[in-house]
């Protein structure tokens, strides 16, 4: 007969953290939210970590290029949605990777014979106002001068004016030799009040630029997540259908980590996808898999070579898998079960495979609960869909601004590829809805509030790191009556516009 679990599956809202001893050092400013993203062996450092434990969901209504940039600035990772043409997705990844860098190869270059008209046309095409003048018009030619917007006045100059008449010549340019470190380059920028610093070879050829805006950006976003070339870290979704074409395109575009976007991960299809990636790229391409809801599913994907495993089926706010198919598990119970298996797997093999709690995050404190229960990071859809940086429209409904939000299992998404239907090319029924969520402004403001709550709660538990929280956390189940008791009650609220817990 069927197997019955002895305990009911539970959600995050059924638990509370019991405070522990807080030392004088337990203040939010001292809390580190750094967490591993991909697997690593005992005694080694993971190849990829995040500075905050939050990633955005692989969804059309959530993770476009603007979300990729904005979330990397805050220390997390966006997974660019897969339900689009391959080249279109790859181009989104490229734009995130090219948005910011430490040493930038010049892509706006001129020759001495070019004119102001050429300058204006180049600026219109690239959006860049700093242009190198080189002997051959390339980004690696011999540097002859620079043109910036301060060097010309469109209203007062003939468009036919040669570049040589208004550029800043090479001998008057502050530059740095090839091999200069990024820190030293930024010091030169600061000392000389420059907007751009050319890096020049011994032979006088342009190597790259370092820009003040990138330095200022890092100062303003100290947790921003960068790769070894000082570019923003970004992820991308793949499916178990066209991975042989999609994965190479995303790798070439610079994606730092991939994840298989699927309704259910304990399958032969995910095994085949992971096997192909490992046979083609070895361990150089990092890829997560999922979703699963128990230890058995976790171990299957870990043995298949997943770099991290997503946990959760049916817990998303727009997901109706449980009510249409009767498949799923309470998210808190699923995370606890999978985390226990993750720890057993680590003890047996020496390989730590991070887990991602995907779905079921309704309140900000649910993130802290998920981390205390064993999750290494959380994937959120509705939370991020509310912000300016999500790719959906802002609409006015009943006097309030809302953002459109639909599930990948909805008819609107037409994302049949995430459902392993044995060759079917359409959805037989929906597993997601089309909806609206309250507009919440800028992502940076929303995340600042959310993460301040996470840090504060960790301090209440006497923890300054996520592993320490996991070790020290004390969790208690709460009754339905005590859940009511936990909110405002038996009072008449004056104004609820800006009060209460921010719903994630």
What does this structure look like?
The protein is of the alpha/beta class and 504 residues long. It folds into two domains: 33-100 and 226-448 and 474-485, Aldolase class I (TIM Barrel); 109-214, Roll (CBS-domain). The protein is built from 15 helices and 24 strands. The protein has helices at residues 65-73, 86-99, 116-126, 182-192, 212-220, 243-253, 268-281, 295-304, 321-325, 331-349, 364-372, 382-385, 443-460, 466-472, 480-485; strands spanning 15-17, 35-36, 40-41, 49-50, 54-56, 77-80, 109-110, 131-134, 143-147, 168-169, 176-177, 196-200, 206-211, 235-238, 257-260, 287-292, 309-311, 351-352, 355-358, 377-380, 394-397, 400-406, 434-438, 475-477. The strands form seven sheets. An eight-stranded parallel β-barrel has the order 5-6-14-15-16-17-19-20, surrounded by seven helices. Strands 7-8-9-10 form a four-stranded mixed sheet, covered by helices on one side. Strand 8 (131-134) and strand 9 form a beta hairpin. Helix 2 runs parallel beside helix 6, helix 8 (295-304) packs across helix 10 and helix 11 crosses helix 13 (443-460). The longest helix is centred in the C-terminal third of the chain and has 19 residues, at 331-349. 45% of the residues are buried.
Strand and helix map with partners:
Layout: E1 15-17, E2 35-36, E3 40-41, E4 49-50, E5 54-56, H1 65-73, E6 77-80, H2 86-99, E7 109-110, H3 116-126, E8 131-134, E9 143-147, E10 168-169, E11 176-177, H4 182-192, E12 196-200, E13 206-211, H5 212-220, E14 235-238, H6 243-253, E15 257-260, H7 268-281, E16 287-292, H8 295-304, E17 309-311, H9 321-325, H10 331-349, E18 351-352, E19 355-358, H11 364-372, E20 377-380, H12 382-385, E21 394-397, E22 400-406, E23 434-438, H13 443-460, H14 466-472, E24 475-477, H15 480-485
Parallel strand pairs: 5-6, 5-20, 6-14, 7-8, 11-12, 14-15, 15-16, 16-17, 17-19, 19-20
Antiparallel strand pairs: 1-24, 2-4, 3-18, 8-9, 9-10, 12-13, 21-22, 22-23
Catalytic activity: IMP + NAD(+) + H2O = XMP + NADH + H(+)
InterPro entries: Aldolase_TIM, CBS_dom, CBS_dom_sf, IMP_DH, IMP_DH/GMP_Rdtase_CS, IMP_DH_GMPRt
GO biological process, one term: GTP biosynthetic process
